[in-house]
Write a structure and sequence with these properties.
Blueprint (H helix, E strand, L loop, with lengths): L1 H12 L31 H5 L2 E2 L4 E8 L6 E6 L5 E5 L17 E7 L9 E9 L4 E5 L2 E6 L2 E6 L11 E4 L4 H4 L6 E5 L5 E4 L3 E6 L2 E6 L9 E2 L5 E5 L2 E6 L6 H5 L9 E2 L24 E2 L2 E2 L6 E5 L12 E5 L4 E8 L6 E4 L9 E3 L6 E6 L5 E5 L13 H9 L10 E7 L18 H7 L5 H13 L6 H10 L3 H13 L5 H8 L4 H8 L3 H5 L3 H11 L4 H13 L7 H18 L3 H9 L3 H10 L9 H13 L3 H13 L3 H14 L10 E3 L4 H6 L5 H12 L1 E3 L13 H17 L1 H4 L17 H4 L2 H10 L1 E2 L2 E3 L2 E3 L2 E2 L7 H13 L10 H10 L7 E2 H5 L7
Parallel strand pairs: 29-30, 31-35
Antiparallel strand pairs: 1-25, 2-28, 3-4, 4-5, 5-6, 7-8, 8-9, 9-10, 11-12, 12-13, 13-14, 15-16, 16-17, 17-18, 19-20, 21-22, 22-23, 23-24, 23-25, 26-27, 27-28, 31-34, 32-33
């Protein structure tokens, strides 16, 4: 106790040297002098295990520890039931991250040879890696994220050691400079795409190699799926989010404002309930961050995992989430599966968590389910997990004075199982490698989702087309929806899905199977298949929101110009009726907009018989905004014409106000509407008797630029020197900015705002340079959405680097603005050389953020 009080006193007295994570204006109030800080000396695995607390009915045991595994950050299960572990050995070996980019990372394979639930040996698949982040073992090798690339590492001779590497895709540069913010995850899901967290791209395996496709992206560290194939991810200060519809709809839907079903927040609560005081939290000085010196607001959330193992009592479908700063693993119980999914901490009433520890070095950073059905917890076991880019003086003082930085090179993997033998535990499968095709089909019906997932990959990679009859029978006859969906997924992955299969799947009563089937119904709809169209009309007007969304998105899959006139009319009429019956569903409106031809759908909805439910002005306003955002001149003019012609003044006003809502804010608005001439419909309504309607028409006319002319502030062409600078900026942007703002500039909800059409990106050069140089602190409005986060200063960038990045942002994403050079950036920095804190929106604009 005396030693603990001495440490607390040292923390009070220690001088706080400026650190990268310090924020000017924040007072880092030290801990009380008499606070008894618990000892944080490293413990043996047995000593650490003694600090664990689990609910009744669960037990923890050690699966592996150093020297079998060191500095583990991620884990995957292969088709042999073995755990593949990513070792990030270069990460934060001291508080300054000395030697961080040394090629000392590894991927190791843990073998439980006797099946007793403990690893017997570890073999090295790949070493010499720089800050590796993820692994996905497949037949013949493994995918590995080792910045700056995603690589395929073949094992042609089957000896368990990588034979080389080939680049699948780049874009992971941020993993070198900012390891907390770069792509990771590598999850093969039921769409036979490999999904990543923190990266809006998908990877598809083919016999000829890997193909990169656009996706929705989402999350910071870790990604998981449920039995429906819905993706789960999170952010450091956000317990759980989910894509309620497939990510492949993300890129086309961005043009119409995106889908609220993507990056949907599942858990709104921010509380966390550690078992010990947690003074070693990076921003523990912030009001409310610690309560009674315990972490009260999450700060390091990562790695969600949907448990589907069939072994843990009453856990299937629950989501387990890591919070290493609080030394806890949370268990989230989900509800409202067929609508806006929601969830909550199962132990919130007792202010508890699923797994807690009184050992400050217990750092759960990843989770998976093994072939035995147990939950495996990856424990990085160390005192420091915060990266140097964000370490504050408060934290550094504790690291140094409580000697938290050493030792490194430790790591444990814990196995969570029932405290007593489960009365109906799943039959144990040790390996799928040598199973026949019919046995793999049977494995798809296993109670353990980890086994089902591996069997699915094996069937597809082995191209077991002879299994199709058995798969079809299982997909239609099995009692469990999860098995039926996995079986249909295997049929699809083997290239065997036919119209008859879609019809059969659409007869299923389960919403998840129906959603899967509608996602593969485009060909049947385009071919005017009667049964599929009847199913679409039935479920499109039905009461299950999640199925309605997929019906509308199925219409997005069908190219309008490829349809026969009768079918195109049927498509428009169905979407219109869906709006009339369920227009209050924001997700449905977004899906309808993503299907395209918004003006035609709205015109049809307005014209429907009055016996249908009435249209609401708010719905039309939202859809008009979405239709405008696509920036298709012909479609925009059709919307203006509809607004001019609609007889109801309230609906007319809503359509024009929605069009105004689509306009960017500030300088980005000027010239945003590129049209052949001022639309006659707007000219006519600019003098409407209704003042709001006339005002909206005039705002739209003010945003019109005649096609072929550069609007104010735009530059049609660059000099060769400017063009070279912009090209250099693209690579720098990928490394310094894309992890948050994304490569396409679309940003990511919960992480960073969009740059595309942002008034901050295309406004005065001085403004964006100041943001990059010094950072910006919310609240800040970007295209009408308020963000309350903080962007850190990029002080490490040279004047030339800032000029290149700013130039790229002002010429990418459809922008045509002028670009700065290094001298201009230097001058701006010189004017604000004494600035040591982020800007606020008020300071940048010179007006209050609320003054719109």
């Amino acid at each position: 106790m005396q030693r603990a009080r001495l440490l607390a006193a040292l923390l009070v007295c220690a001088p706080l040297a400026a650190q990268r994570g310090d924020r000017a204006g924040e007072t880092q109030t030290p801990l009380p002098a008499d606070l008894a800080v618990p000892d944080a000396a490293p413990k043996s695995p047995a000593g650490e295990l003694a600090t664990f607390r689990l609910p009744p009915g669960f037990t923890a045991s050690l699966f592996a520890a150093e020297p079998l595994v060191r500095d583990p950050v991620a884990v995957q299960v292969d088709a042999g039931g073995r755990l593949w572990v990513v070792e990030m050995r270069g990460y934060m070996n001291d508080v300054d991250a000395t030697g961080e980019t040394a090629p000392n990372g590894r991927v190791v394979v843990l073998h439980d040879d006797d099946g007793d639930g403990a690893a017997d040996r570890s073999t090295v698949f790949a070493d010499g890696l720089v800050l590796p982040r993820a692994v996905l073992p497949l037949r013949g090798g493994a995918l590995v994220v080792t910045p700056p690339e995603l690589v395929w590492m073949p094992d042609a001779d089957g000896d368990g050691v990588a034979d080389g590497r080939s680049v699948v895709m780049g874009g992971f540069e941020a993993g070198l400079d900012n390891p907390e913010h770069s792509g990771n995850g590598l999850l093969w899901s039921f769409d036979h795409r490999i999904h990543l967290a923190n990266d809006a791209r998908l990877v598809r395996w083919t016999k000829a190699g890997f193909v990169v496709e656009p996706g929705a992206g989402g999350g910071q560290w870790g990604i998981a799926h449920d039995d429906r194939g819905r993706l789960y991810f999170n952010y450091n200060e956000d317990w759980l989010r989910c894509d309620l519809v497939p990510g492949r709809y993300g890129p086309p839907a961005r043009a119409t404002g995106g889908l609220p079903q993507h990056n949907h927040r599942v858990v709104a609560d921010r509380s966390v309930w550690p078992a010990r005081i947690t003074p070693g939290v990076n921003r523990g000085y912030q009001p409310g961050r610690l309560v009674d010196h315990k972490l009260a607001i999450h700060t390091a959330v990562c790695s969600p995992h949907v448990y589907r193992g069939g072994l843990l009592p009453d856990c299937d479908g629950d989501v387990f989430v890591c919070e290493p700063a609080g030394n806890v693993v949370r268990r989230v119980r989900l509800r409202d599966h067929d609508d806006l999914l929601a969830g909550a901490n199962l132990y919130e009433a007792e202010r508890g968590e699923f797994l807690t520890s009184t050992d400050e070095r217990f750092r759960p950073v990843h989770l998976t389910t093994g072939f035995d059905g147990a939950l495996y917890v990856v424990d990085m076991y160390r005192g420091v997990i915060q990266h140097k880019n964000f370490v504050t003086s408060w934290l550094r003082a504790q690291i140094e004075q409580r000697k938290l930085a050493a030792p490194v090179g430790l790591g444990r993997i814990w196995r969570i199982a029932p405290a007593a033998a489960a009365p109906a535990a799943p039959a144990r499968i040790r390996s799928l490698h040598d199973l026949r095709a019919d046995q793999l089909v049977a494995a798809l019906a296993h109670d353990n989702g980890a086994v089902r997932d591996a069997a699915l990959r094996e069937l597809v990679q082995r191209d077991e087309r002879g299994a199709l009859p058995g798969l079809r029978a299982q997909a239609q006859q099995h009692a469990q929806p999860a098995v039926r969906l996995a079986s249909w997924s295997a049929v699809d992955g083997l290239g065997g899905l036919q119209v008859a299969d879609v019809r059969a799947a659409l007869r299923d009563a389960d919403a998840g199977v129906l959603a899967f089937a509608f996602g593969r119904a485009a060909a049947a709809l385009a071919a005017e298949d009667r049964m599929v169209w009847l199913a679409a009309e039935q479920h499109g007007l039905g009461d299950v929101a999640s199925v309605r969304w997929h019906v509308a998105l199925a219409m997005a899959d069908v190219a309008q110009d490829a349809l026969a006139a009768k079918t195109a009319y049927r498509r428009t009429a169905l979407l219109a009726r869906m709006l009339r019956f369920h227009g209050d569903d924001a997700g449905l409106r977004a899906a309808v907009a993503a299907a395209g031809d918004v003006a035609a759908v709205l015109r049809a909805a307005v014209a429907l018989e009055s016996s249908d439910p009435p249209l609401r002005a708010a719905w039309l306003r939202d859809l008009a905004a979405r239709g405008m955002k696509a920036r298709l001149p012909a479609a925009q003019q059709q919307l203006f014409a509809l607004a001019h012609e609609v007889p109801d003044p309230a609906l007319r006003r809503a359509l024009l106000q929605g069009a105004v809502d689509a306009l960017p804010k500030g300088e980005a608005r000027t010239g945003w509407l590129v049209l052949p001439a001022a639309p006659p419909a707007l000219v006519a309504r600019a003098v409407d008797a209704d003042a709001a309607t006339a005002a909206a028409a005039r705002e739209l006319l003010a945003a019109v630029a005649v096609a072929g002319a550069a609007a104010a502030g735009e530059v049609a062409a660059l000099t060769e020197a400017e063009a070279q600078r912009v090209r250099a900026g693209e690579a720098l942007f990928a490394r310094a900015c894309a992890a948050c703002h994304q490569l396409d500039g679309a940003g990511m909800q919960g992480l960073a705002p969009p740059l595309r059409d942002s008034e901050w990106a295309v406004g005065p050069i001085d403004r964006i340079v100041r943001i990059v140089a010094h950072g910006v602190r919310g609240p800040i409005d970007v295209n009408g959405t308020r963000w309350t986060m903080e962007m850190p200063a990029q002080r490490q960038l040279s004047d030339a680097d800032v000029a290149a990045i700013v130039g790229y942002v002002r010429r990418a994403f459809g922008h045509r603005q002028s670009v700065p050079d290094a001298a201009a950036v230097a001058a701006i920095r010189a004017r604000h050389k004494d600035r040591d804190e982020p800007w606020t929106a008020e300071e940048l604009l010179g007006t209050p953020a609320d003054g719109r």
